[in-house]
Amino acid sequence: MDGDFVIALGRSRFFSPLASKPVRQLLIDNILILLGTALVVVGLIQRARLSPIVGYLLVGVIVGPHALGWVQDLEAVRRLGELGVIFLMFTIGLEFSLPRLLADKTTVLGLGGMQLGLTTLVIGGAAGFFGLQPAAAFAVGVALAMSSTAIVCRQLVEQTEIHTRLGHTAVGILLFQDLATIVLLLILPVLAEGTPWLRFSDMVAVLTQGAGVFFILLFLGRWGVRPFFRHIASLHSPELFMLAILLVSLGAAWFGQKAGLSLILGGFMAGMVLGETEFRHQVEADIRPFQDVLLGLFFITMGMLVDLKVLVQVWPAAVLLATGLIVVKGGVIAGLAKASHLPASTALRVGIVLAQGGEFSLVILFLALDMGLLGGAVGQVILSAVLLSMTVAPVLIRFNTTLAEYFFAGSLQRIRTGIAQQVAETAKGLESHIILCGYGRVGQNIGRFLAEENFPYIAVDLDPYRVRAATEAGEPVSYGDVTREHILHAAGLERAQAVVITFNDTRSALKALGHIHASRPDISILVRTIDDTHLEELLNAGATEVIPDALEASLTLAAHILLLLGVPIRRVLRRSTEVRADRYSLLRTFFHGRRSPRRRERLQVFRVPKGGYAVGRTLQELALGRHGVTVTAVRRQGIRRANPTPEMRIEAEDALILHGSPEALQRADRRLLTGKP
Q: Is the pTM of this model over 0.85?
């Protein structure tokens, strides 16, 4: 039986040496070409601090049939790319929250709906004016009305602007665009079949069909998927859990297609169903690698559609359209944001941030090209314009404040003055108070302790919703950016006795530290971090103490276990105080596992062999410190001696526990073995 199976396997077209060339290309050649090229190009793009999406698009342009032509089996690559879009929609479904939608209905439904409608009308009307058929003009209008959720959110997070008024407004509009894509993917095929614009019944039938499929999936999810995942989770098998995610997501996509909709819509609905379960976050974390890799393949296939020969002839039109898209779309969004009572400068920044095309622009254009709505030079111009706008988007987002200052310097100054006045009003009358930079969970807990001990404080935070809620509760919180010097002075820095930086953004913490230390070098500054990666950098920047979450958690757990083991509380407190006084040096050295953390320093055990250079020599003679290595302990005959003295003489078979960077540890190994530096 087993022998027959092996023989059959050897005869199969996938494993046989006589397999056809296209199959071997799909399995080996194309995959290796795509992986190798993507590794190089995307790596270079990320070094330039651009979105990986731009890198994947360039890979498609380079290896596609219209350039080097390295990849021939485009259909196979396209099918894999479609799986990426399915998983993207699945993730969006996971993140969809009806309560959040209702809470931000003014921004999401109001501003987002007006943005999509007006932008589609303006761009679609212009496309119709230049000769496109109504269905094609509508497809172009809605495609160019979309913005890039991936690029915008990533850049705003890096710039710590995601929780500002700008960030909340931009994310609200993006949320509506993502939801609108679901409806657009339903009605575009109807338009492609030549249905008249006013034939409303077909649209209603398609939407009704979509709603029916959704309620069927919702019923199956509530009464089938949730118990199914609870059973899988009870088995404690990550492999089975991953298989269950793939089965449900791809199974729902298949069901959506069989029901007359599409694979993409089925994936979105599966995400919505699982998003209502307690497994949402675990599912999202597990599916992310599949989504990122396969979505990268989708963007590669979009890049392959760019015909360089045609583009050479029409590039002026592509550049002009990209410029027009950024100006017109950005202007429409800025105008609508201003009409919704945002300050002029903030409204312009929202327009700049959302002016580009996005991943759903490419999805809609791909669908329009596939259905024959667009083609030839027109399709190349529109596709290239979207790609160009996405390429320059990170730069525009990075300098959105600079651009707004150029046009609205007076408005921005008035806004900043108004924010500073609000902070100063909150800090009015405070003396010898504490300034809390950030009012998240950590900041709020510190504030409660200070209030109970009657210490005055003021908190400054960038999340307007959090500030509003805390202010309504009567807490001394104000909106502001503590990386700006005038906000710190408005908070009464000259009169304060201490500052606590409670957020875990090292870059922002360093900026704030620079301003605080320059104005008040005598003030005590406590800084919170996730771990000790940047501990020395923060201390050198002026922090009085740096409190790493990971090390404090280790210290607290160690204290609890010692108390449970009967160690006197006085000794436990003394040990904890010594560790803190020594800046956590005891806890900062540890053995790295397979998943090494970001910091490079690590512990390594070196066993001294007989005849090694170190035998018979003292640690002082070995001078490992000159090579950047510290001997934290020596284990001899089963006895561990921590913090050995320089006079300690090394014997054969001693185990030295060394701490340092990989390069320094390599030099120390050479020194201990041969005596060479």
A: no
